[in-house]
Amino acid sequence: MTSTPAANTAVLSLGSNLGDRLWALHLAGDLLQRKGDLIMTSASSVYETPPLGVGPENGPFLNQVLIARTQLSPAKVLVICRQVEEKLGRRRERPGQPRSIDIDLITCGSHILHNDNLQLPHPRYRERRFVLVPLKEAWPDFHDPHDGSTVDQLLEQCPDTSVLLRLIEDEAPR
To answer: What percent of the chain has pLDDT over 70?
Structure first.
């Protein structure tokens, strides 16, 4: 008898700093949900954040965290994220360039992976307030699958001191 694998909880971090940023977040969330294999269970507010680790030509980002349940493997979740990015015009010509949408898979269940295509947990999420602040809102009981750190502990240790501005609730994609 074969058992069905337990559903994973995927943490997705969305960001946009090119074009109609809010529309891009709305549409990306809708497209991710339409795939059917990702069931959104929670969404943070949308936050405007300064560009981090890229040049000033990038301008401010809008960021949001989505929490989804899925039976898919992390690799398949990543494929869906890349398909949505491509559909919304994301080009990967050079690192740090402005982008219509960026979707990072932060964690997927308790998976810990380190290969050429995917690293879980995301290798830099602990250093990014634009991930941790919305993550705390969307999933306050989050624990890092690698070491069990709570999102509060991660925020206390985060070296990023950026100021995040939360958009008005009515404007935030759900």
So the answer is: 86
